[in-house]
Amino acid sequence: MTELWALGAWDLSELVRGREVSCRQVIEAHLRRIDGVNHRVNAITVTLGEESLDAADAADRALARGDEVGPLCGVPMTIKENIDVAGSATTMGIVALREAMAAADAPPVAELRAAGAIPIGRTNMPEFGMRWHTDNALRGATVNPWSAEHTPGGSSGGEAAAVATGMSPLGIGNDGAGSLRWPAQCCGVSALKPSLGRVAQAGERAAGPTPFAFQLLGVQGPIARHVRDLRLAFGHMCGRPGGDPWYAPVPLYGPPLPAPVRVCVVTDPDGAETDPEVAGALRRAAGALADAGYLVEEGRAPALARASEIYTQIMSSYGRVHREQPPVEAVASPGFVHFWQAYEPIWTRAAGEQAFDPMMERASIARLWSAWMSRTPLVLAPIRTRPAFRVGSDLDPRWLADWPDTMRLAVVVNLLGLPAVAVPVGPAGDLPHAVQIIGPRFREDLCLDAAAVVEAAIGALTPIDPR
Fold first, then answer.
1. Which CATH superfamily is domain 4-458 in?
2. Among all residues, which ones are annotated catalytic?
3. What number of H helices and E strands is found in the chain?
4. Would you say 418 and 400 are in contact if contact means Cβ atoms under 8 Å apart?
5. Per-residue confidence at 204, pLDDT binned at 50, 70, 90?
6. What is the per-residue DSSP string for 381-435?
7. Residue-range domain boundaries for the chain
8. Positive or negative, the Cα torsion across 176, 283, 390, 142?
9. What is the pLDDT of residues 317-336, one digit of tens each?
10. How confident is the model at residue 207 (pLDDT cuts 50, 70, 90)?
């Protein structure tokens, strides 16, 4: 029999609701897995052992009484340390916030808990969520379970590594610049970056208010090993507004599209070189979609370079909580300080020519994409045009010089508030690879459908034991 920790959220929910296993058995299996492997990857920062077992026992009593239970009853979940979980610290990877206890769950955590999911742990992230490698002074570095020499990604790197190693079947992270999709690529798992407004963000968090740039560009979303688990979790993350002014109660499924559904494969992000292994991953995914009846064509995305610049301008101008920020040395680790000293001049150049009104330009770019996607509703693209990098590379300004170019196809999704699913497409050498499928706003269903086709053709890559 397959170990319980190796099963996905969907399979676990079926076993629990069918009374084949108890909620306590499921939680205990995952806590044992955490005890067995977390010391090798440092993905889970806080284990909610007693609380999760108490919740499992309560769920088992409800099942025994014949009470109606949620569709995620007994399914463990882990939550990134910048998302509020009642009674747990929202640290954002910062030493000064280690006691920033949340009084209430963030809206998507509350929704999943109401559907029966049980929080079992918090996961690691880089300081401020502002680095593409997961390390901080509070928790230390997370290790990529495929290769300790390579990054697990960031900023949801702890979530991706926890899910990849079977410590959790379902992780909740967020994505403001590829922060769900890039770790999914590095660790070989699936992730959904929802549309802006689809999943509510808390108006006021334990760690402080949310700056405008993160309200506009960042969203909460699930990480899992299987696309159907993303769909299951996503369907139970969208139900309450939580004081979020961007929240939109839109149906989960849109109208069917006439067949064949067009897919544009974008391999050239306005001149940024695509690594041959990443290009090979795109070809494998494109072949799977074509074999399933999608009409797959190569093309170029409109205004991609300018979209990246406008993204950078908005994040630079409106990504701070305070007008006067404390010196980075006062709040961050030497590693983050080194990273930011190397990257800040590159980030500044990446803003390009200053827009008179960045939001006005954003609207113009959105109209271009809307017209393009009305003809070709799905876009198959790299997440980053290079594979997971070796640990320490992002401290070298020469290596970092083209980072904004390699991430254009990730950040344009954030700028325009579009949905995208990251789906693994097999290993190459020692590392996994993944692609993203981008859809029109509020058409997560189309992205998930296509990602499920790719997964069915290629297969899941995880769970794995740390290597």
1. Amidase signature (AS) domain (3.90.1300.10)
2. 80, 155, 179
3. 17, 13
4. no
5. low
6. E-SSSS-PPBTTGGG-HHHHTTHHHHTHHHHHHHHHT--EEEEEEEEETTEEEEE
7. 4-458
8. positive
9. 999 877 777 778 888 889 99
10. low
